[in-house]
Specification:
This is DNA-3-methyladenine glycosylase I. It holds the Pfam family Adenine_glyco. With about 210 residues, the chain is an all-alpha fold. It has a single domain (about 5-195), classed as Hypothetical protein, domain 2 (Endonuclease III, domain 1, Orthogonal Bundle). It is built from 11 helices and 2 strands; from the N terminus they run E-E-H-H-H-H-H-H-H-H-H-H-H. It has helices spanning about 25-30, 40-50, 55-60, 65-70, 75-80, 85-90, 100-120, 120-125, 145-155, 165-175, 190-195; strands at about 5, 10-15. The protein has a two-stranded antiparallel sheet with strand order 1-2. The two termini are about 20 Å apart.
Length: about 210
Amino acid sequence: MSSMFIAADGQPRCRWCGAAPEFLHYHDTEWGFPVSDDRRLFEKICLEGFQSGLSWRTILAKRENFRAAFDGFDFTRVAEYTDRDVARLLADEGIVRHRGKIEAVINNARMARDLVAREGSLAAFFWRYEPDPAQLAAPQTASTSAEAVALSKDLKKLGWKFVGPTTVYAFMQAMGLINDHAEQCVVRNKVAQARGRFARPRGAICTDTADAG
């Protein structure tokens, strides 16, 4: 239990969520719960790209600013951005003003639009890479996996940027493709139950949910 964070309600949680006040709600209500909404999936993979070299606290604190700046991460709209939008975003003090990362979001929006045209949805594509829980390392002991490496490689082949294996693995953890909550974490079983009820997007390969309660 020494590796756990004990919140005000007396319940143990993943240690990382005690590092900043805003982490607790994110941990309890978002992180690890399965997501099939394309806009949320696109938002998260973009924000993970922005996090590269920074802390998640920095990105989470600016998340609403990012949403406002990028039209709610509606990739059909972001795909139409021009150099004028890049200039606007580089002048926006509410977000991370990194030209390469900004241009990557616009590029990836175009790639996402193309991917949806081919696959039907981003969710159907991403969920094909859901790992077999039995093959995963112990919770929060790995920074990547074979599936994350495969997804990263395939996204890069399709023209996506800022989607390295570590970035992709963090995306998979957050979007529920992996239940990486610590074994004693009070939220782990809630995530397991949500994964057990979750209807995998059409076209995805459904692996088992052995830890579902």
